[in-house]
Amino acid sequence: MSCFEGRVKELKNVSIDCFENSNIYSTTYFLSHCHADHMRGLRSNFFLKRLDHEAHVYLYCSEITAHILSSENTFSEVLHKIKVLPLGVSSIVKILDHNGSAEDVTVSLIPTGHCPGAVMFLFEGEMGRILYTGDFRLCEGDVSRFRQFHYLDGTVKVIDKLYVDTTFLSRRYQRFPSRTASMSILCNLITSWLHEGHDNDIYIQTAAKYGSEAVFIAVAKQLGMKIHVNDTTYNVYKNIAEIKEAVTDDPYCTRIHACQQYKWPFRSRDKTTILPCRNKSSKLRIIRPCAMTFTSKVYDGSLESAVLQSDDQELFRVCYSCHCSYGELEHFIKYLKPRQIQACVIPQNMEEAGILDLLKKVSRWGNGSSDMPLITVSKKCTKNGISSDMATFSTTALMKQENAASSGNFVVVEEASRGNMPIEWSNDDAEIYRLIAEDLKPKIGDPDAIIKQNIRLEFLEIAACLNKSVV
Ligand SMILES: [Zn+2]
Ligand SMILES: [Zn+2]
Questions:
Q1: Ligand 2: centre distance to CA 213 (Å)
Q2: Which part of the chain is the DNA repair metallo-beta-lactamase domain (predicted)?
Q3: Is pLDDT at 54 greater than 50 in this prediction?
């Protein structure tokens, strides 16, 4: 889960995948994909006010991400400020500062294979070359195929700073099967069960709202049978050409279902169950594509070890990952040899020191320590961060997130006044809030004077509390 705090130091006034706290002050926003941990604050009152009241503040994303946001009713207030950037060509984006002057930055979107619409952002300009990966899975060899990473003569571009998804940066996840291998295992499990009896049906249990579409596409293509999804999900998919062909909103025209999100009570082999989408009892085989369970102790590289069957249950876990394995991540970093690296995810059961250590290990490509990149870790989201769970991306989660986000700064103030600030806070944070407050000082005749003054006072209060708690 991402703990990237949104600000890209090298690009003043830009925030990516985080829309709360001091990010409110940015002028240019980027969204890499539609998972809750990358959308913190996107629906908060602060952020929506900022979009409404500042004419030149925009949110940039890929076409499919924009489509998903427009299909989900909960993001309607953001839609008028979305600007779609195309894949495959570089675009010039004007980044405004608070005095109205602009800096031109070239932005390229690179598909990440993580979920529909997910992209990396490559920024090129006077500040150098910055790559923000968002969540991604590129297999070994993929990175060499993207021309955006290469000069015209084919040599690899110098990346000054890499902000990277380190979800599986752990020796426990040395490798994962290729997507093709995972799909083939999954299709065999489906075919064998459907052939075993006429009452047999399949339920594909997905871990997150978006991220299993490649599975649906592969299954539909290989088995010639669409996957039933619920109406809400179908509304999103029906305008994405390649996914639309793989899914259906008719529960009676298929034996493969993924229509009830997240949980399904386990069933033993012989028990029949009634799918909520239709009045017919079936014997269900549940297939759960997932990666977390498949540590190096479980998955040894063989096809057999990429499947786990639960005892006495018709439940199969198939190793399928939307994030790079340790080996893939190592290959990616060694290929690009960035000058600086910032980890954006703290892997499960790991501390900052462990991540730094592993990143140092995968960054050995020169002869001496002078070739080593500078390595940092994103600030861990703590008390003022919004806890979001990719696996429970639901309306309830979003509601909670919105409430938390809209009151996020008040939480900071309250906690700070009690002397309870998380240890990660430093004088720098207080300084950022103070500078923001300074810049928000309304000028005479400013139509947004009241809003600016209110936010300004709040930020000044936060700065004062932070100073008090740090000293
Ligand atoms: Zn994600
Ligand atoms: Zn169904």
A1: 16
A2: 242-348
A3: yes
